[in-house]
Structures are given as C-alpha cells and as structure tokens.
Amino acid sequence: MTTKNQELAAWVSDVAALTQPDRLVWCDGSEAEYQQIVDLMLGDGSLSPLNSETHPNCYLHLSDPQDVARVEHLTFICSDDKAAVGDNNNWMPVADAKQKMNDLYAGCMRGRTMYVIPYCMGPIDSPYSRCGVELTDSPYVVINMKLMTRMGARALTRIEKEGKFVKGLHSTGELDPERRFIMHFPEELSIMSYGSGYGGNALLGKKCHALRIASWQARQEGWLAEHMLILGLESPEGETHYIAAAFPSACGKTNLAMLIPPEKFKDWKVWTLGDDIAWLHMDTEGQLRAINPEAGYFGVVPGTNAKTNRNAYDMIQQDTIFTNVGKTADDQPWWEDKKHGEPSVDWKGNSYAAANGPAAHPNSRFTVSATGNKAYSSLAEAPEGVPISAIVFGGRRRELAPLVYQAKSWEHGVLIGAGVASETTAAATGEVGLVRRDPMAMKPFCGYNFADYWSHWLSFAGRTDTLPKIFHVNWFRQNEDGDFLWPGFGENLRVLQWIIQRCKGEVGAKETAIGYLPNEHGLDIADLNIEPAVWESLTSINDDQWRQEMTEFGSYLDSFGDRLPPELRKQHQQVLSALAS
Ligand code: SAT
Ligand code: MN
C-alpha cells in the first residue's frame, strides 16, 4: 500500500531516510493485520498469552520498569512564540527541538520495521473528526492504536480526500529516560516522540494529538478539546441527558462513564460515549455537542472489580491487551483489588512476593475496543455527536470541596474549572498524593497558555444563550482517619441525578459564596446510612478554608499576568467578597 497524498508520501520517505528502518509497513487496520502483529510479538516475547479459556484473545505486555507513565517534565510545546505556549507548559524553540529530535532519530529504526498508521480521531464520517498519521517502530503501538482509534484504510481514504492530517513520529529508541522527549509543534500540526513506549507518550492519537495539538487547533477554529468523559443518563421514562466530565488522570473517569446504578435506581441507565477525551462543538442552533475522538479505552486496571466497575470487569475478560499487571499461576491477569485469584508473577515478571510491592503497577492499563462495553451508547458513533446538558469538573480532594455544587453562570463555571486542584496519581511519574493546580484537568494536556485558554472558554458565553450548566464534584472527601465520607462508584448516580434535575429546574438549592449546594433533602440518600454530621460536611463549605483556597488560587491566577482575562479576575473577586461578607 502507499498513498495518493503527495505530502504524506514525501514525509514517509523523508522519515525513512532519516531513521533507516529495514522494512516499511502501511497498516490497513484489518483484523488479520492485528493478529499478525500479535503473533509476531508473541514470537519475540514482547507479548505473552493469557489463559485462553478464561481470557480469550487477551495478552500481557510488560514494559521496561522505567517506562510506566507519562513524563510531564519531558513533554514540550514547541513554538517560536513562548508567551503563546505559556508557563503551564514546558517550552522549546522549534529549531532547537527539531535538532534535538533529528539527532535522536538518525538511524534509530535500523533493524526495525517502520509502521505507517493512518488514523481518524472521531467517527469516520463526522465533520468534527480529525485525522493523523503515526509513524512508529513499535508493534505494541500498532495494536494499541488499532483498539484506540479508527485506523488503517478507512482513515487513509479520508486523509486523501481532506488533505490535512497531523504528523506524528514515534520511536521507542533505547527506552533511556535520559534520552526521552515528547515534543509538540502545534503550528505545523506535528508531534515527535522518542524513548518511551508508554500509552500517553507513544499512542500519539491520544493525549498528544486529541488534546495538546487539538486544543490549539480548537481555539483557532472555535471549539474545545477537553480531558472529559461523556455519558448519557437515561431516566425510567426513557429521557436521556448527556454529561461531559473532566477529572485528572486516574481519578475515576472510566468508572463514572460506565456506572451501574444501585439497586434502588435499577430503572436508570448510564450509557458510555467516552471515558477520557471529548471534542465539543457548537452546532448551528447554539447547542454544544460532543464527540469522543477515541474508539477504545486505555484504563487503569488496579481497583477494577465486579463491584467497582462491573461493565469494565466483564469487558476485559476478552479481546484485551494488559500492560504491567501480574499473573496467576494459571496465566490469568491479576491486579490489586481484583478480588479474585492469587498473584504468582508480578508486573516485572518476577515471582510474586508481597515485600517487593504490588503485583500490578499502580498505573497498569487495559486496552480494549469500546464496542466490548455493554453500556456503549448507540449514539457513540453518531457523526453529529450528542447535546451536552451539563459540564462537570472534579478532582481528588481529601478536604475542602463539597460533594457537588453548581456554578452561578457560565463565567463562574469557567472560574470553577480553572480552580480545579487535585492530588497527583500514578498516571504520571513523580510523587503521588500532592495537591497541585490542574485547571479543567488539563494541566498536562492544554497545548497553549492557560490564560488564552480561559479566554477561549469565556468566549462561548457570547455565542449562545443555551450553554450547558457547569458543576463541580468531589467523590474523595475523607475524615481524619482517612475513611472516605461518600461511598462513590454506583452511588454517584445520585449526584448525576441532582445535576440533571438542576439543569431542568426541578430542584431547589442553597446559594453559597462558591455556588449552589444541595438542600438538606436535595439528594435521595435516605437508604445510604450516612451520619447527619457527615452529610452536613459533604454539603456545606468551611468559609475559612475557602478563603485560604481562594487566596492561593488568586496568586496562581496572578502568575498569568496581563494575559489573564479580566472576566476571570472579576469572578474570582466576587467569590472572595461573598466569602468575606
Ligand atoms: O497515559 S495516558 O495519558 O494515555 C492516560 C492518562 O494519564 O490519562
Ligand atoms: Mn486521561
């Protein structure tokens, strides 16, 4: 196979001349091709088979132990306009970055195969979708891209028709953490990644294209590329409302997107559209609509069990690639909190010993096609996307943030999104459990200056009067002993219900300085046996703590200087003075 698109053909041959692969393979995206690459990897040991009776078509990949997460300190946005990139990103001038990468790429694919992966982010026939081509020397990347995107011949046809595509070059290099970089060139829609085989660093359609490059493009074109799940909440009467929700990595987006309602609400249904990324466009009627650019899930494995996420647990019994989990003696995948079986081998391939740490790496992942999810929405492939009623922001906060509150306006909602802070998780290298600012859960993913990003968010207010309502949730409040105050998981349905009732104007709320909070009996929780004092602390605010939070947040906003939109400053002042009075 080759291509009619001159630009693509020339780029592929230039990259081949630089990297010197032994072979070149154009991926067609077929099942046969997938199986062929799986067999090749089984042959060289980079995949191992799992128990084919309990887990048909499931495989295990163990990565280099030093290559298990995103590397934010090695991830750069490259432009000659440093201010446009912003202090929220690592920056490098274009020429310096290219020089550095081209030196690393020189001859790096000798002895290897270079795969050409045309892919489409979003349904093939959606006007909101965008295409890219990834060149990689990693067969692991090819099989993951097959599950995570619409890749191969269909995507190439669209690229040849449209002419425009994102160019992503990836090599696993030597997996040396000292020779590892993830570079983005938003002005020329290109990505260069070297030295890592890990998901977010190597599957370039995902965070690199669908968030960092797309967020830059979205600002120019008037849409939003966000780190959000998309779900549909269907009432017993058959009315469905769609919610897009932003949480940092490893804070439960996949679980929320696949939520199974508790027994008491068994006539309600949650449908999954996406679990990680949403592209939001305004249609001609002024309605914000969402598509999920991805076609699969790259989810955190540990903690997944029949209680926490039955849909995911069932989904990953077949047709799944596991990365960095342990194994039982009979070759079933095993991870902490699986609640089934015993580990025999850990994620480093050593025989399991509790003293050596967990059997599965805390950021171990499953990769699986979205079609394996029993709750996959019938509208997930709709080219026009789904209308969004509510946007939800959340983080992992032991203290401070109540269970749920609603913004007073779109502009106030942008402030709430900008104020998201969360404890760090194993999804990125670095210390876990530190609270850091993570506006809109986009700190690692916004491809340009946050100040301009907030201006862009604010600009939507002038374009329509039917914008979604904005909310903030926190499932992670704890008491002094470290016990969670809210049961979470399926019970989060009660919060989603309240959110939709608020959107429809069906339930009252109490106004506070930070937004609207549920009334005493606003949420249906009678059967949950939550102590009244606990419920009170979940649904109220501590003014002193909030004054401190808003003061710290104010200094953070100040760090963006003159670029900070005045409207955001005004919103911040309003909350602060409401807290003072
Ligand atoms: O590793 S990924 O970036 O793909 C997943 C995540 O951290 O959200
Ligand atoms: Mn994510």
Structure notes:
This protein has 581 residues and is of the alpha/beta class. Among the domains are: 6-46 and 70-222, Phosphoenolpyruvate Carboxykinase, domain 1, CATH 3.40.449; 226-235 and 393-580, Phosphoenolpyruvate Carboxykinase, domain 3. The protein contains 16 helices and 29 strands. The strands form six sheets. Strands 1, 4, 5, 6, 7, 8, 9, 10 and 11 form a nine-stranded mixed sheet that branches. Strands 12, 13, 14, 15, 16, 17, 23, 24 and 27 form a nine-stranded mixed sheet that branches. The chain has a five-stranded mixed sheet with strand order 2-3-19-22-18, covered by helices on one side. Helix 11 (410-418) crosses helix 16 (566-580) and helix 15 packs antiparallel against helix 16 (566-580). The longest helix has 17 residues, at 205-221. The mean pLDDT is 97. Sulfoacetic acid binds next to helix 7 and helix 8.
Which term fits the overall shape? globular
Q: CATH first level of the domain at 226-235 and 393-580: which class?
A: Alpha Beta
Poorly predicted ranges: none
| Fraction in beta strands | 15-25%
How many helices? The count is 16
Radius of gyration equals 23 Å
For the largest beta-sheet, the strand count, sense and barrel status come to:
9 strands, mixed
Through-space gap between termini: 69 Å
How much is the average pLDDT?
97
Q: How many strands appear in the DSSP assignment?
A: 29
CATH architectural designation of the domain at 226-235 and 393-580: Alpha-Beta Complex
Specify the structural class: alpha/beta
CATH fold-level assignment of the domain at 226-235 and 393-580: Phosphoenolpyruvate Carboxykinase, domain 3
